[in-house]
């Protein structure tokens, strides 16, 4: 699997493109302002879009998901527990939502016409059928939101975890927004700490790291191992 990333202009969310050997592409976390660049890249490379995914339902990770789903006639895949956020992307962020809507200067995010929800218990994985030739596992990691999910893939022979806003390089996601839960976050971090140390993590914001590096340097991950 090939992994290519783009940084969204709005709040710097990392948008990931997962491309199999046949040129099928699944887009993860289409944040605010990435749609045009993603469409252009897919067209230039001759890839075939098959799915859009979200690590969680916060609007900075779903802003352009609806636009891509409509342009390509593909579903948005999201954990069942976060699907409700798509109909009210600003309101489900609490007081932060209206502020974000008013300051963004981007077209309003569109609700995807088709949503494919999946269910996994906290800390458990399910295999997603996305139309790509290689397995994509969804690992339920609640705490930042109820439906926060990591996506586990093989990228050029390296185990890779797209961790959304659960685990960052050097820190972790916040739990003080609506739907956040500190105890659930600790359990999710413990689950991530059990992954092989060589696992590459690609967070929802900021630089990449590895599980081993985070266990050495990230006090939040060390404390729950």
CATH topology: Metallo-beta-lactamase, Chain A
**DSSP summary: helix tally:** 7
Per CATH, the architecture is: 4-Layer Sandwich
What is the tally of beta strands? 14
Integer tally of domains: 1
Mean pLDDT: 95
Give the helix/strand class.
alpha/beta
**Helix residue percentage:** 10-25%
CATH homologous superfamily caption: Ribonuclease Z/Hydroxyacylglutathione hydrolase-like
> Tell me, what is the CATH class?
Alpha Beta
How would you characterize this protein structure?
The protein has 225 residues and is α/β, with parallel strands linked by helices. The protein has one domain (2-222): Metallo-beta-lactamase, Chain A. The chain has 7 helices and 14 strands. The protein has helices spanning 35-45, 59-62, 65-72, 96-103, 182-193, 211-217, 219-222; strands at 2-7, 14-19, 24-28, 48-53, 76-79, 115-118, 125-128, 136-140, 149-155, 158-164, 167-168, 171-172, 200-203, 209-210. Strands 1-2-3-4-5-6 form a 6-stranded mixed beta sheet, with helices on one face. The chain starts with a strand and ends with a helix.
């Amino acid at each position: 699997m090939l992994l290519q990333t783009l940084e969204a202009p709005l709040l710097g969310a990392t948008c990931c493109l997962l491309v199999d050997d046949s040129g099928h592409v699944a887009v993860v976390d289409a944040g605010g302002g990435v749609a045009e660049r993603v469409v252009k890249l897919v067209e230039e490379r001759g890839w075939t879009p098959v799915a859009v995914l979200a690590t969680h339902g916060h609007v900075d990770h779903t802003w352009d998901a609806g636009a891509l789903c409509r342009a390509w006639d593909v579903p948005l895949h999201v954990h069942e527990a976060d699907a409700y956020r798509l109909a009210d992307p600003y309101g489900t962020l609490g007081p932060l939502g209206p502020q974000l809507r008013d300051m963004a200067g981007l077209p309003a995010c569109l609700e995807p016409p088709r949503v494919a929800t999946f269910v996994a218990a906290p800390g458990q994985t399910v295999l997603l059928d996305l139309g790509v030739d290689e397995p994509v596992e969804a690992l339920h990691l609640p705490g930042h939101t109820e439906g926060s999910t990591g996506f586990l893939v093989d990228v050029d022979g390296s185990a890779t975890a797209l961790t959304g806003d659960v685990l960052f390089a050097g820190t972790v996601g916040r739990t003080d927004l609506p739907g956040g839960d500190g105890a659930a976050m600790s359990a999710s971090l413990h689950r991530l700490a059990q992954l092989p140390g060589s696992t590459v993590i690609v967070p929802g914001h900021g630089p990449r790291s590895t599980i081993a590096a985070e266990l050495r340097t990230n006090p939040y991950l060390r404390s729950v191992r």
